[in-house]
Amino acid sequence: xxxxxxxxxxxxSWYKSNKRDLPWRRDYNDKNSPYFVLVxxxxxxxxxxxxxxxxxxxxxxxxxTLLDLSNASENEIIQSWSGLGYYSRATNLLKTSQIxxxxxxxxxxxxxxxxxxxxxxxLYMSSSIVxxxxxxxxxxxxxxIQRVLTRYFQLDYSNPGVNRxxxxxxxxxLTLNASPRDVIQALMDLxxxxxxVNNPSCNICPIREHCKASSKKTFDFRNNKDLxxxxxxxxxxxxxxxxxxxxxxxxxxxxxxxxxxxQFPTTDWVDNRNNKELNPNxxxxxxxxxxxxxxxxxxxxxxxxxxxxxxxxxxxxxxxxFQNSDWVALGSIDNLGLSSLMRKVLQLIKD
Length: 351
Hints:
Helix content: 40-55%
Distance between the termini: 65 Å
CATH class of the largest domain: Mainly Alpha
CATH topology of the largest domain: Endonuclease III, domain 1
Number of domains: 2
Number of strands: 6
Order of helices and strands: HHHHHHHHHHHHEEEEEEHH
Shape: globular
Oligomer: single chain
Strand content: 5-15%
CATH superfamily of the largest domain: Hypothetical protein, domain 2
Structural class: alpha+beta
Number of helices: 14
């Protein structure tokens, strides 16, 4: 019969010697440690650890405490987030820091139900924060933890939602049995380094003795569905320079993809590259095709034609293209909160 110690004892022993050296883990006695965990959890949503490390270090160097962050502007936060994607995370992090500053005297709550009510924080993040920052039991389950425990117990995965709840209950039991901080992070590191999606290294796994997947040599915990290629979308980016060398820059809406980031004016992104919306109402000799930018989002691929429009003709474009827009010198565009997509466009212009 399963005993929590069968997992926690060898797992934590392995973790003590093999844990990843991550900047938000280095000193849990630091009074700002809960703040570091909060920032890292926002950044790690939908983003790999290797990508986050550099952004995290720059972010903390600029805003070393929650007090500093709560006084930052939205544009500053978006600018620092440029390249990480999912920019609503940045604005939600700022909002959360301001609420914590005003309502909790700059102290990050250690209560899951309280944390869940803050912008951008759901069950997983609130659980992860209380376990990692405050060493309290929780049901924190990310994809690595779900994969490790689904394999260990050979849990049914035909209904991913039911599977996740089962894994959450197991995590709660494990974090009640041993150091929650160590259990959660050890499971994460084990899933990242040893119990990988493809070709798990069972021969060096510290919990292989009682692992059902290892004994049965069956490791696929996913639904057996064909992975479809990402759909493609198309659009135009308009590069418009005025007579003093400034470029027209607009700000994206408050909601939706790349929300509140700055951009060179664009058309809507459509499924058909021959859509009439993508044909500017100009004589071809009046415009210059600068190049093509390709970008991959989590759920679609995007291809944008970068087109230079003469300043004398730009007002012929649809008005929606220029909402919330202004003229910005080329040297100042880098200081704006551009997405990584628009940084590709900027680099194309500079080249």
